[in-house]
Amino acid sequence: MEVAAFRSEGDDSMKKNLVLTLMITAMLCLLANAGMAQDEPKGTPPGSDPADPTRYRPGPRSGTTLRKPVTPDRAHGGAVYAVSYSPDGMYVASGGLDYGVKLWKVPEATLVKILEGHQGAVNSVAFSRDGKYLASGGSDNAIMLWSVPDGGSVTTLGRHSKRVNSVSFSPDGKYVASGGSDNAVMLWKVPEGKLVATLGRHSKRVNSVSFSPDGMYVASGGSDNMVMLWKVPEGGLARTLEGHSDAVNSVSFSPDGKYIASGSSDNTIALWSTPDGTLISTPGQHAKRVFSVCFDPAGQCIASGSADETVGLWGSIYSRSQF
């Protein structure tokens, strides 16, 4: 598999290693966000053979499904909607359509714990920076907090009035931000589960939330085509970033917090200035909608995942590269 030629000169092996790292990161981001831009509710998979005893059937709760049995070649009993690496790189958490949150040991890929508690699909998972906690958001409208690595349920942090699409920890681990299909961006105290503030609302559902590296802001992307920047912890709108012509499915801060990247169903990736909210550039465009974006650790490149089945790399180091 070849990538596009590098623009800058330097050690090719180092650059190729960085490309592979970014590709893996982008693929993880794509898994974590791919379901957020779907118009149909999660928990409503495609039809299957009625004679198949493991097929999805309407569940006992509205808008949910019964779980499939897990086989050795399948990590979850249904689609996997969310993945997240622990800060120390020792664990990967995953969540999906089978209502389960699973904790995996890296690199052995052994299952450490199944975290049970959600009553609907798990749409988002996020580790605290110290790695002690894992937050999860689900189609049961709940945000749950788990201890790591024992997997004990600490508390249900809170609930939205509709499904939770995205969760994000503050850098100091004191708060969890959540975005939901009720259009709300909420802030929860960890580990008590107290609602600190409803930071604000979009006019349509919230697909993605992300804390700034300094913990002063939460960025959110919504189906109203907007990126919004909210003050923490008091709430209130700091800036509205307008420029996309379709739903914003993913938002991500650069490591230094000076920039925000967003990916949209208008097929574009946008780069914004955090201090003033201006659109700096549209560094790339896919053939179909963009589900996920994230910065590389150096803040020099943006990785993106798209419905066109490619992972893109955009920035000063690379020409447009797709895998």
Q: Which H/E pattern describes the elements?
A: HEEEEEEEEEEEEEEEEEEEEEEEE
Shape: globular
Radius of gyration based on Cα positions: 19 Å
Amino-to-carboxy terminus distance: 7 Å
What labels would you give this structure?
four-stranded antiparallel beta sheet; globular; mainly beta; 24 strands; 323 residues
Q: What would you note in describing this structure?
A:
It is built from 1 helix and 24 strands. It has one helix spanning 12-33, and strands spanning 80-85, 91-96, 101-105, 110-115, 122-127, 133-138, 142-147, 153-159, 164-169, 175-180, 184-189, 195-201, 206-211, 217-222, 227-231, 237-241, 248-253, 259-264, 268-273, 279-285, 290-295, 301-306, 311-315, 321-322. The chain has a 4-stranded antiparallel β-sheet with strand order 1-2-3-4. Strands 5-6-7-8 form a 4-stranded antiparallel β-sheet, with no helix packed on it. β14 and β15 form a beta hairpin. The protein is globular.
Quick rundown:
It is built from 1 helix and 24 strands.
How are the secondary structure elements laid out?
Elements: H1 12-33, E1 80-85, E2 91-96, E3 101-105, E4 110-115, E5 122-127, E6 133-138, E7 142-147, E8 153-159, E9 164-169, E10 175-180, E11 184-189, E12 195-201, E13 206-211, E14 217-222, E15 227-231, E16 237-241, E17 248-253, E18 259-264, E19 268-273, E20 279-285, E21 290-295, E22 301-306, E23 311-315, E24 321-322
Antiparallel strand pairs: 1-2, 2-3, 3-4, 5-6, 6-7, 7-8, 9-10, 10-11, 11-12, 13-14, 14-15, 15-16, 17-18, 18-19, 19-20, 21-22, 22-23, 23-24
